[in-house]
Amino acid sequence: MKLILHYLKRYKKLFIINVISVFGFALVELGIPTIIADMIDVGVMNADTDYIIRMGFVVLLISLIGVSMTILLGYCCAKISTAITRDIRNDIFKKTQEFSHSEFHEFGIASLITRTGNDAFQIQMFMNILLRTALMTPVMM
Is the separation of the CB atoms in 17 and 72 below 8 Å? Predict the structure, then answer.
């Protein structure tokens, strides 16, 4: 986790935008059911069609905000996770360039290829899930 935080520090602006979009998405997810319940309690019970239509437009507006926040969240998560993975791969490549001939034989070419490819991809998937789901869970609570 220390390694990931080291690389995440480089992308503070995107991370802040990611957190804001998580809050926006959570507010929309929790806000629409509240508004619908209010529409039923006030509009339907009092047969106030103007209120129902007005609140329907509010729900539509909030839904559009939710869609934009979801798109922004996906963009930020993808951008951060791929950038961190790129940085990790570049650092691994730079480090392997310093290896001696005997160190290459010690680690093995196949192992080095796996580390630069598959292991970095696993970190990318972990970061993507962390930035989406793990940030959203405390906000939703």
Answer: yes
pTM for this predicted structure: 0.80
Instruction: Give the residue among 108, 109, 80, 111 at the shortest CA–CA distance from 10.
Output: 80
Note whether 62 and 24 are within 8 A (CB). Answer: no
**Which run of H or of E encompasses 110?**
helix 109-114
If you count them, how many residues does the chain have?
Answer: 141
Angle between the N-to-C axes of helices 12-38 and 49-97, in degrees from 0 to 180, rounded to the nearest 10: 160
The closest of 88, 81, 75 to 17, measured between CA atoms, is: 75
- Which of 115, 23, 25, 131 has the alpha carbon at shortest distance from 82? 131
Per-residue pLDDT reduced to its tens digit, 34-51: 999 989 988 888 888 899
